[in-house]
Amino acid sequence: MSDAPPKIRLRGLRKAFGAKQVLDGVDLDVRAGSSMVILGGSGSGKSVTIKCILGLITPDAGTIEIDGRDVLAMSAREREAVLDRTGMLFQNGALFDSLPVWENVCFKLLAQKRLDRARARDKAAQALADVGLGPEVGDLSPAELSGGMQKRVALARAIASEPDIIFFDEPTTGLDPIMGAVIDGLIVDCVKRLGATAVTITHDMASARRIGDEAAMIHKGRIVWTGPASTLGDTGNAVVDQFARGEREGPIQMELRR
Ligand SMILES: Nc1ncnc2c1ncn2[C@@H]1O[C@H](COP(=O)(O)OP(=O)(O)OP(=O)(O)O)[C@@H](O)[C@H]1O
C-alpha cells in the first residue's frame, strides 16, 4: 500500500497573473481514498490550484500527477479520459436554469452520450435519492429550489458519473449551520460510498473538521502546513492556528486578506 503513488501529487506548481505570483511552488500529496481540505485566505490561490488540476488553468511551471502519471505531459485525449473520472461541485452550484434538475444531474452523461435519456432519468433519480431528494425534484427547475436543495442537486451532479476524484469548492457557503452540517454529512457518505478521493476548499472550520481527514494550508503561494483536519485550531503552526481560530492578531497580515 505504502508504495502506491498518491492519487494527486503536485510539485512546484507556479502560476502568475500579470505581476501577481499566485502560486509560488505548491507541493501537495492527496492519498487515494482520503479527504483533503484546502484552507487559505481569500485570494490565496485555492481555486487556482484546483483549476490547474482540472485543466481549466495552465500552470507556468510544476507537475501535476494523478495516479503517478503527469497530466500536463498527456495528450488531450488521455487527459480527457482522466478528467472524465473527476466530479466537481462548484462554489455557486452552477446549475443551468434552462434545464430541469434531472438533466442538470446527468448533464455530463447526456453530453457524452454515455446514457440514453431514459436511463439518464433513472440515474438522476438514483443520484437524487443518494442526496435525500425524491424523484419529483427531477422535474423542477433549479430556480424553484432553495439554496440547500440546490447544493444537494449540485452534489448529485458531482457524484452521478461515479467519479474517483471529487472537488468541492466551498460546499457550505451561504447555508445555515444545520443545512451546512447536513451537506457535510452527505458529502462524507457519498465520497465513502464511491470510494472516491475528495478535495474540498472551505472557509468553514466546522465543515473542514467534519469533511476532512487531512488539511493543507496555502499561504503566500505555498502549502505551509499539512496535517490531520481534526487538529485545526490547535496545530502548533501559528499561521494555521490564527486562520482556523479567526484571530485578528497573528502572522497573517491584513493586507493579504483584502
Ligand atoms: N483567470 C484569472 N485571471 C487573472 N487573475 C486571476 C484569475 N483567476 C484567479 N486570479 C487571481 O488569482 C488570485 C487567487 O484566486 P483564487 O480564486 O484561487 O483565490 P481563492 O483562494 O480561491 O479565494 P476565495 O477564498 O476568495 O475564493 C486572486 O488574486 C485572483 O484575482
UniProtKB/TrEMBL annotation:
PROSITE patterns in the cross-refs: ABC_TRANSPORTER_1, ABC_TRANSPORTER_2
MF terms in GO: ATP binding; ATP hydrolysis activity
Protein name from the UniProt record: ATP-binding cassette domain-containing protein
Species: Muricoccus nepalensis
Domain ABC transporter, first and last residues per copy: 8-245
Gene3D superfamilies linked to this entry: P-loop containing nucleotide triphosphate hydrolases (3.40.50.300)
Pfam family name, one: ABC_tran
Keywords of this entry: ATP-binding, Nucleotide-binding, Transport
Nucleotide-binding keyword on record: yes
SMART domains: AAA
Keyword ATP-binding: yes
